[in-house]
Please model this.
Amino acid sequence: MDTIQIVLLVVFVVAAIVGYLIINRIPSLLHTPLMSGTNALSGITILGALVATAVAVKSSSPVGGYIFGSLAIVLAMINVAGGFIVTDRMLRMFDGKDKENESND
Amino acid sequence: MNRTINFLLVLPDTAYYVICGALALIVLIGISLMSKVKTAVLGNRLSALAMAAAIVVTLLKYEILPDWVLYIGIALGFLIGLWLAVKVKMIEMPQLVALFNGLGGAASAIVGFFAYLGIGAGDDLFSRITALLAIAIGAITFFGSMIAAGKLHKLINQKPIILPFHTGITVLLLVLTAAYTVFAVIPAFSGMPTLNAVALTIIATLFGIVFTVRVGGADMPITISLLNSLSGVAGAIAGLAIGDLLLVIVGAIVGASGLLLTRIMCRSMNRHLSAILLGKTTASVVTEASAAAAKPEAEKTDEKPAASPLEAMREAKNVIIVPGYGMAVAQAQHLVRDLAERFRANGATVKFAIHPVAGRMPGHMNVLLCEAGVDYEDLYEMSDINDDFAGADLTVIVGANDVVNPAARDTVGTPISGMPILNADHCPRIVIFNYDMKPGYAGVENPLYRREEGVWLVMGDAAETLKDILNKW
Model:
């Protein structure tokens, strides 16, 4: 392990503790949007997908790298975009104003 | 790489670290703003903004901004995500969240795969172990979420599917996953990386499937929340593998927050996480057996020569409504809102009592009722309303059972014993809208159904029975 890896591990632990503390204050009323919002954030893995794909397309087997890399980018981006948009929809509904016209079916 | 293009766009390391810190802070602020309805929209948008910035910063940092091939995937993913998010009905929210969550897990697994093959990551032990962990956790998240989404969308049998020696198999697969992660980094065996990565994916996939197929009904919110946490962990570990700071920070925040949410829910159901993971659901087995036993006696209460449920409802001045999963199944949330308005038109006060694990996802009832136009300020958490039941003159229960079952408080040794419940039984008059007399998911008979005084049972699909009541009002 080099220094950067140790730093990353420390960051991992600190971020986890902070995340843990912050959630404690959120009422169960908002648990669904909270879950859906943090779920969108877990699509942050798109960063890894972007970097890996960029490297892979320049490697010895660019086609396989491109296919799998793009797949990862698409999947992560669905998670990110869909997650944030759907959370926004839900929260605006909670707030009452700007109410959507959901059909009553 | 074209030097002239990148000349202005290269990001110095110091600036990168400062930006990472700032973005992490914005994400934390965003999440904490989600603790209040008024600020939650802003919080979510802040998080989204931080995410967009993180993508741009990463493209700059790794000098891949001009790699146009990346943008095809980004655009495609964005459009699919947008389409799904706009199209979905609120009732389908649990499965959509599970689906999105699974996709994120799959992406992390692929990143782990690349990293294990040395693409985007170093060739050292730390990178390889974390890469393998990312593959394993990512695969578990993906397949677990797909099974959960399939169950919620009724593509797969919603009842727990139990294999012979299910607990044994679950434990074995978990141990195998861990063992293989270690095995695959031993130098003697790491000569065939693709094979190792594929084998690990298969084992982890099996674990993900085996552990979720036996989850049914009431354990679903906890499972969804746990999978949500895992997708964050998978991302963070993929970040460790490729040495990406932002990925580690945000992934860890999501992982930890999901884990806490899972624990909060376990506590409100009086369940141990390990029991859910390893499937010690005594509950599902009992359901069928005691269902028959509950039936005969209960018919009597229907005959009670007191006022009709309708009269009881008309007379009420202080009403508490308890919604449950049955309301979601019957899609009766709009009718429940109409009912609340009738009460109010009569000069009654109406409050909604929301049990923390009512429904199939944390906060499920709140979403449905808000969709129907119920003011969120009328929705009360269990701890805030439990003392009010005794003072209310009517409690209306719509499609809830276990969460108001006094057996949880009064009887020892049942699957729900010790689970905090809504004290609906403290209320002098109760009208219960429920599909049938069967015990709830936990399989424990509900003494409320046999109470002689002041309980009216209205059996049938909640949408129909409520419509009927509203018509007669």
In short: Chain B is about 60% helix and 5% strand.
